[in-house]
Structures are given as C-alpha cells and as structure tokens.
Specification:
Number of strands: 35
Distance between the termini: 32 Å
CATH architecture of one domain: Beta Barrel
Helix content: under 10%
Radius of gyration: 20 Å
Shape: globular
CATH class of one domain: Mainly Beta
Largest sheet: 5 strands, antiparallel
Low-confidence stretches: 1-25
Length: 423
C-alpha cells in the first residue's frame, strides 16, 4: 500500500538530486498541524471559495470517537488521533486522502483512570507530526509513540513524561532533524523535552527558569506548541509557557533568553519573522507581544517592541502573511495587524466561537468556527468578506491543504473539499 523506506531509497538512487527533492517534498504534504513551514500560510492553491454539504465535497467520512487534533498528511495518507468519550482508549486513524478510505484504526494507549478535562477540550487534542515512513502521536501525559506508517504498529513509546494538565492535553510535538520536541507545562511541573526520534530516548530536558511558585497551579499551565526560528543564521527553539516566552538552543536545550509577561493557559503558537517572534499571553486578558530574539537572560525590559491587547485569541493560532498578522479571538472578532508597528489595519466581528486556527491561502483568509461555519475574507489591507460556507458540524481542528483541496475535520467527520479551478 505505502512505499517502504527501503523501496524509496532504491527508487531515488538513480534519480537526479533536483528530482529527488521534488519527490521527497511531494511525499510529505502536511507534516505539522500548521503546514510545511508551521505558519498556516499557503502561497498558492486553488482551493474552493464556496462549499456546503452538497457542493464541492469530494468525500466525507465519519470519524469514530472524539478528538480535536488536526490531520497530518504524508504519502497521500491523513493521520489523526481520537479517543473514546471516556478517554480510556486513545486511538490513531489513517485515511487515504484520494478516496477517504479508512486504512488503519487502532488503540495506541489505554488508561484506566483518565484525568478530568475542560468541556472544550478532548483527550486527543495534540496533533501528530509525520515524516515519510513514520508517524509520531502524542496524547500529553497519557503517552507519546512513534508508529510505522506502513503498518501503524508501534516502534517505540514513552509513558513516563507526565504533568498535571488540569484541563486535558493540548500542546503538539514538533520534529527537528533527529529530535521530537514538545512542551510539558502543567500545574505541577513545567519544562521542554527533546527525544531522539529514532528510539524515544531523552536527548535533553530543560526546566522553565521563571519561578512560578508564587502562582497557584492554574496559572502555571500552558498549551502552546513550540516553533523553530532562524536567529543570526542559527536555528532556535521558540517556546511559550505560562508567564513567559523562551528561546532555547536546539542542540543542548540551554535557555538563551526569556521574556516575562502575565498570562497562562494559552494555546496559540508563536509566529516568527526575521529577528522577531510574536506570542500571545493567554488568560486573563490576552495580549500579543512582538519580541526581538537577540540577547541573553531576562530581556523583558529591552526586547518587547510592541503590545496589542484588543481581541487577541487564547485558543486559535494567528497566521503571518508578509507584514500582516491575521487572527481571530474566541468570540469571533477578526483582526489584521501590522506586524512592524502592532497597529490594527482592520478589525471586524465575523461571528461564531473559534478554536480552530485560520489559514491564509493566496489572497484569501479562511476562519472556521465551532458551529460549522467558515468565513472567507480577502487577504488585504481593507476588510472584504468573500464567502460564508457551512457544514453540518463545527470545527475544533485546524484546516489542511493538500494540492488544491482542503481537508477539514469537523467534530464528527473528515471532509475533502475541492472544486474545479478553485471555484
């Protein structure tokens, strides 16, 4: 069904280097819940502007169980996680994106006594990451595993990386070279960990340096996913936790710098552009901070360039397009910010309640709400609503682009949305 790693190597042996790179790029279509560069921005794709249950739906498949994780795609297979309603069985499912056929569905972990979770969360909210031949699934404290993409069988697993999520798991892992990295920010412990992706063994683990002892447990937790930034020609890990944001050396895990703020329980992922990162601070009142990535130690007083505090999301991740940041808060206010100044270019109420992250595709920005509606606006300095679309159930997972199609996971189904010439 899927090409083995050995077969792939033999195939590439006689292929010119440029052609090899094209083949490999095509094999992993959506490796991370925010796409190939973790940005939520797709420069070109002729995805439809409009759809409904009877228009531009190539296929629709029921997803058994419950889970808010975004699908990831490699070798024309979409992988997602799910769980039984009681959280006692944590599962993985794989679908052929061409026809929607269910290829695999199996229980990865079992839990006799799942902890409580927030009503808006699920036991399978962290998204997987994928590379050709391997899938890495993560259920927070309930377990992390590497699966064989041909068989779905477990290659390695870890069940000893624990924290008290308090509201259920949320942060997703990322891949960087030979590392699988994720945040562990609970009410009890807070750290970042990097595993050897080949065997699951710990390469480094770094405790958060901010002293959170004076804060109650609820104000120590966070659900953000880290991101990689290029800083002075070197890759750096950017990671947001409760009460602060950090830059880490990827090889050793050593903390390079940190910025303090007031906030916790944030889920949005940081944005990166040139020598800047843009982070959201979560509850109580969310802010967006623009932070310079240079310096050492506590750079709070020197590196914050601007702050913005109107209708900043606590759950969905913003998207950065050129010098514009598009975001939507939990209550349906969409904002376009100038990333250089922190000033609002426009701000409009589009309605709905939002957890899924928006996506920018070419000259359009798509916003997906918890009721099943998608509002499409123009990627421009003036607000222009282009379309409204609605499906039978709402969105907690974020959208995926493969070719000229959208893969949309609602609370109950997985859809392939595609139209002729993007209409």
């Amino acid at each position: 069904m899927l090409m083995s790693v050995a077969s792939r190597v033999l195939l590439l042996a006689g292929v010119p280097l440029l052609a090899q790179s094209v083949l490999l790029a095509q094999s992993v279509q959506w490796p991370d819940y925010r796409g190939p560069d973790a940005s939520g921005h797709v420069r070109e794709a002729k995805v439809p502007l409009e759809w409904s249950e009877t228009k531009n739906v190539v296929w629709k498949r029921r997803v058994l169980g419950m889970g808010w994780s975004t699908p990831v795609v490699a070798d024309n297979v979409a992988w997602l996680t799910t769980s039984t309603d009681d959280g006692k069985k944590l599962q993985v499912a794989a679908y052929d994106i061409r026809d929607g056929k269910l290829l695999f569905e199996r229980v990865v972990f079992e839990n006799a006594k799942p902890e409580k979770k927030n009503a808006l969360n699920s036991f399978a909210s962290p998204s997987a990451v994928v590379e050709s031949g391997r899938v890495y699934v993560h259920f927070g404290s309930y377990g992390t595993a590497c699966l064989d993409a041909e068989t779905s069988e477990t290659i390695w697993e870890r069940r000893d990386i624990n924290c008290d999520h308090m509201e259920g798991p949320g942060s997703s892992p990322i891949l960087y070279r030979n590392l699988l990295i994720f945040n562990v920010d609970g009410g009890d412990v807070q750290y970042v960990i990097a595993l050897d992706k080949s065997n699951g063994k710990t390469k480094w683990q770094t405790e958060r340096s901010l002293d959170l002892a004076k804060h109650p447990a609820d104000l120590r937790k966070a659900y953000s996913t880290p991101v990689i930034a290029k800083v002075r020609r070197r890759d750096q890990l950017i990671s947001t936790g409760a009460q602060g944001n950090y830059g880490y050396d990827l090889k050793t895990g050593k903390e390079l710098w940190r910025v303090r703020f007031k906030g916790f329980s944030m889920a949005p992922r940081p944005l990166v552009a040139k020598d800047m990162v843009y982070v959201t601070t979560g509850f109580m009142r969310a802010q967006m901070l623009a932070i310079k990535t240079r310096g050492k130690g506590d750079v709070t007083d020197d590196n914050i360039v601007w702050k913005y505090s109107r209708n900043v999301p606590k759950m969905s991740s913003p998207v950065l397009v050129g010098d514009r940041i598009f975001m939507i808060d939990d209550g349906g206010f969409a904002t376009c910010l100038d990333r250089l100044t922190g000033k609002a270019v426009w701000r409009e109420r589009i309605g709905g309640s939002h957890c899924a992250s928006p996506i920018c595709i070419g000259d359009r920005v798509y916003y997906f709400d918890r009721g099943g509606k998608t509002v499409v606006v123009k990627n421009a300095d003036e607000f222009e609503r282009l379309a409204e679309n609605e499906l039978d159930d709402g969105f907690m997972a974020s959208p995926v682009v493969v070719g000229d199609a959208l893969l949309l996971r609602s609370k109950t189904h997985l859809y392939r949305i595609e139209g002729q010439n993007g209409k």
